[in-house]
Each structure stands twice: as structure tokens, then as C-alpha cells.
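Q: Here's a chain of 93 amino acids. Please give me its 3D structure as C-alpha cells.
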Amino acid sequence: MTVCGDARVSTDGQTPEAQQAALAIAGCTRICAEKISGKARANRPQLERLLKTLRPGDQVIITHLGGLARSTRDLLNVLNEVGEAGARFKSLA
């Protein structure tokens, strides 16, 4: 089982370090970090890579829902992919 974290910030003034630290404390052994707008998921190569490598029993952890998806529809799509891979999902906030 792999515990994967996803950290994203969208502006130049932000850094993902605080999210990465929280994810490490939560037990993530693999953390994907991006400094990119979350408007279009196609623009999130690290998230796509994470989702494609999920295996049954893995867990995806995020620090907050807004960092993962910009809309309810996108959030549901991501959660569906996590579930179809047999993985679990957890938000720290």
C-alpha cells in the first residue's frame, strides 16, 4: 500500500511546502506537488500521473478539497478515478 499526497498552489506568491509538510506528517510516502492553476485538470500533469499509478489498497491524501478540484464535478470525477483504482481518499481539512 502506498500513501500518496497531492499538493497544489496556484499563484506565484504561494509555495507548496506547508502542504507537503502536512502530507508527510500524515504518512505520505509519495507527494506530488504543482504550482499551477486548478481550472483545467488537463493542466495538472502530476495529478494525472498520481491517478494513473494508483493500485488497490493505496490511499490519496490532500490537505484541503480546494487544492484538488475547482468544481464539485471535477472533485467527483477525481474521486471516481480513485475509487475505480481500488484506492481510498482522505482530506486533512
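Q: Can you summarize the key feature?
A: The longest strand covers residues 3-9.
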